[in-house]
Amino acid sequence: MKKLINAPADVLAESLRGVQAAHPELRIDFDERVVLRAEPTRQGKVALVSGGGSGHEPMHGGFVGTGMLDAAAAGEVFTSPTPDQVLAATKAVDAGAGVLHIVKNYTGDVLNFEMAAELAAAEGIRVEAVVVADDVAVEDSTWTAGRRGTGTTVVLEKIVGAAAEEGADLDAVLALAEKVSGNGRSMGVALTSCTVPAAGKPTFDLPDDQMEVGVGIHGEPGRHRVPLASAHEIAAMLVEPILKDFGDASGPAIVLLSGLGGTPLIELYLMYGEVEALLSAAGVEVARSLVGDYITSLDMAGCSLTVVKADDELLRLWDAPVVTPGLRWGA
Amino acid sequence: MKKLINAPADVLAESLRGVQAAHPELRIDFDERVVLRAEPTRQGKVALVSGGGSGHEPMHGGFVGTGMLDAAAAGEVFTSPTPDQVLAATKAVDAGAGVLHIVKNYTGDVLNFEMAAELAAAEGIRVEAVVVADDVAVEDSTWTAGRRGTGTTVVLEKIVGAAAEEGADLDAVLALAEKVSGNGRSMGVALTSCTVPAAGKPTFDLPDDQMEVGVGIHGEPGRHRVPLASAHEIAAMLVEPILKDFGDASGPAIVLLSGLGGTPLIELYLMYGEVEALLSAAGVEVARSLVGDYITSLDMAGCSLTVVKADDELLRLWDAPVVTPGLRWGA
Question: Residue A224 catalytic?
């Protein structure tokens, strides 16, 4: 295992230390492993809390800041945050207008966020939740009942974060979150496995001449293992299941092509060119795009494609100012 | 070789196609392989042109935009752009106030930018050049007389780009570029080799239990090959040669910790925590920082550290608005 780490057990805590050193605009609760904005939530603003296993950086801690999340609970690598962590995050950012939990659809995450919501409710905090389940690769998996939650989460956190910043109330924020969640589809491909520090060896074996189509962000098996293909062919393997699932995919969309951690930008842009051509040919109007590492799987080589159908409301909120370590524009 | 590519010979052209699809605010001259702003240079503004071999994305094409570069000439992977490419870039962006060439110190780059400058001068364009040679690892190398040019280039392009945007004339822009260049030091470490698409196999062999300290951004040998060490130990191997070279490193600085392409953010932030602690202990006041992939070596695992001593002028220009694919804030 070749990684820039010290003891495997210390990876999360030490990485958070680096985030704090690099980002004085954030505040880290090191006991609870929660990333917060340095400034407390503005009174009356709906607060957004997300979180999940670590290893997907910049998601979620890197999306805390003005115009996006208020807090993110960081579980151990590929491990759900505990209810206590989520509760601590929720209590820290509630400013009287309630809290939206943004949860990716993995069994542990869903259970632990639900438990935290109940505990928060018992303390008088109103909590609603949106569960993102956008991965069209598989209907159920080892870690999930129903579809897995992936890249749509990033787009949702940006758009809903803008609405909360503008003063939308919790009902409106929840409705918007459900809309974005329903509009998003994702599909990923792995060229290599990833290596969890505590395990010290690759999560799965993938021969030199094969790739995993429909891989999950923790290295869960996908739809099929196939011979290594060209970027052009891979683009079709990502785009077609998404288009098929949409039925009618025509019209404006926000498109995210995320690296999985071990694939450099020169390849991601090449891949984006292939993907964009296929989407355009199918009548998808790519209104906004993001290419880079936004939702990763440690050091896995590969990429995931997310398409979120958008209308004027979603595009306006997408364009609103955002100041986070992972996404920043307009301010 | 596991990469998201089609034919190895088409990687650069197809990656540029993706950049164009993702960034309508840029214009790509596909014949000359030059990345330009979509809008022509404002009359009377000094234009900044950089470039170099591809494989270091987002550098340089990802730093074209308001507040940073006007154009970047993209050579083939790890290959200097030709004089014709640099000349085309120079002519395309000159707006009557002259052009600054920002060159990393590699023999081919220096020669080809010089030749382009002479050709441009013959056409009546005033060109000045700054050559960045900030890598403290080695004094000479296979590809370089003198020190290699690395991460300080990113900081220089940002700061000098802000000055040019504000209307500084070519003499002032050149003086500022020399100042930033003189203030910067870098050092890198590779945990793995990289694989050039056209070669199809790793550039060098690096056993599973070793790393290359002082590696160059094309996989050039560094100071020494040593057993794989902890992040804490690696941080010292990067920080100490930089501090030693500065002599007195105390005072404010801009610090860039760049991944080399194959190392994910969770490791980079952990590494940054280690580096920042050592720098602070040595009296360096980290006034601004960047952690992420800014100057890469294809899919190499590892990182490079850049420290640029800064004063109020440099920090003010660093904070000025920038809108590029690779760096964006304040606008």
Answer: no
